[in-house]
């Protein structure tokens, strides 16, 4: 719990510093004089292709910062926090699932060879030295081999459910952030529209520029929320697909383990 709280505080501090940096960049942009713009335009023809790419990248970054500021730091910051937390959990899940992937055929071949040469103890050494849920299920089954095939089956099924729960840990949080980011964006849009209509009411006139500017700023939060939702949805689907593949390997390996124990007659009847 302390680690989660520390992680949350770190991300909040990072977001606050990012928003402050955006504000500073906006103030620095407003201080650029006309003479500086003319000088930059005069030197464009002398810039190499690499410098042009750097200038375009800087311009794109500046445009993103400007849109972030225009959308309002309250809701844009909330959407940014959602993206940071969602990506942190998603990346952790991707790394964990990648490490949980095992070459099942190679593991089963090693276990089969160990059972034929050294028995259950040798096979246990092989499975304990291998990481992943499939190896963990093999270990649990082999530890109950002396209690009979029925006990091995029950142990494999029970521990398979435990391993599946470990694989799916964190996915509900990613799903929450996927739903939360667009909702925060829509909330910012609604509040921005209310502010635009308040400005129209205060001005006493419907100015096209006033309405268009207010609507543009209000819709920026929706765009940001949808982008965050799309990014996290890609990670979520990848995690779900990987988990399904690992679970399928676990089921196939469980059946193969029972067959190997019966084949070598190492389990009590």
UniProtKB/TrEMBL annotation:
Cellular component GO terms held in the UniProt record: plasma membrane
Record-linked InterPro entries: ExbB/TolQ_transport, MotA_ExbB_proton_chnl
Record-annotated MotA/TolQ/ExbB proton channel domain positions: 133-251
Classification via Pfam families: MotA_ExbB
Main location: membrane
Biological process according to GO: protein import
Signal sequence interval, chain numbering: 1-23
Membrane association type: Multi-pass membrane protein
Cellular localisation: Cell membrane; Membrane
TM regions (residue ranges): 75-99, 173-197, 217-236
Family: Belongs to the exbB/tolQ family.
PANTHER family linked to this entry: BIOPOLYMER TRANSPORT PROTEIN EXBB, PROTEIN TOLQ
Protein name as it appears in the record: Flagellar motor protein MotA
Organism in which the protein naturally occurs: Flammeovirga pacifica
């Amino acid at each position: 719990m302390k680690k989660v709280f520390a992680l949350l505080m770190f991300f909040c501090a990072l977001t606050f510093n990012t928003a402050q940096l955006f504000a500073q960049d906006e103030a620095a942009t407003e201080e650029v004089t006309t003479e500086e713009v003319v000088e930059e335009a005069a030197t464009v023809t002398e810039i190499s292709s690499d410098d042009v790419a750097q200038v375009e990248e800087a311009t794109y970054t500046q445009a993103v910062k400007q849109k972030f500021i225009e959308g309002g730091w309250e809701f844009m910051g909330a959407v940014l926090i959602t993206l940071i937390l969602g990506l942190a959990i998603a990346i952790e899940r991707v790394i964990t699932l990648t490490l949980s992937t095992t070459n099942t055929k190679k593991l089963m071949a090693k276990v089969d060879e160990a059972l034929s040469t050294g028995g259950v103890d040798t096979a246990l050494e092989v499975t304990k030295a291998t990481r992943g849920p499939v190896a963990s299920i093999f270990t649990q089954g082999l530890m109950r081999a002396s209690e009979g095939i029925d006990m091995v089956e029950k142990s494999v099924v029970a521990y398979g459910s435990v391993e599946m729960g470990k694989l799916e840990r964190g996915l509900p949080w990613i799903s929450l952030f996927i739903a939360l980011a667009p909702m925060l964006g829509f909330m910012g849009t609604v509040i921005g529209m209310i502010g635009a209509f308040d400005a129209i009411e205060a001005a006493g006139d419907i100015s096209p520029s006033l309405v268009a500017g207010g609507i543009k700023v209000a819709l920026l939060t929706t765009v940001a929320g949808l982008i965050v939702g799309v990014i996290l949805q890609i990670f979520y689907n990848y995690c779900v697909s990987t988990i399904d593949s690992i679970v399928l390997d676990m089921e196939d390996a469980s059946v193969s383990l029972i067959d190997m124990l019966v084949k070598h007659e190492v389990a009590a009847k």
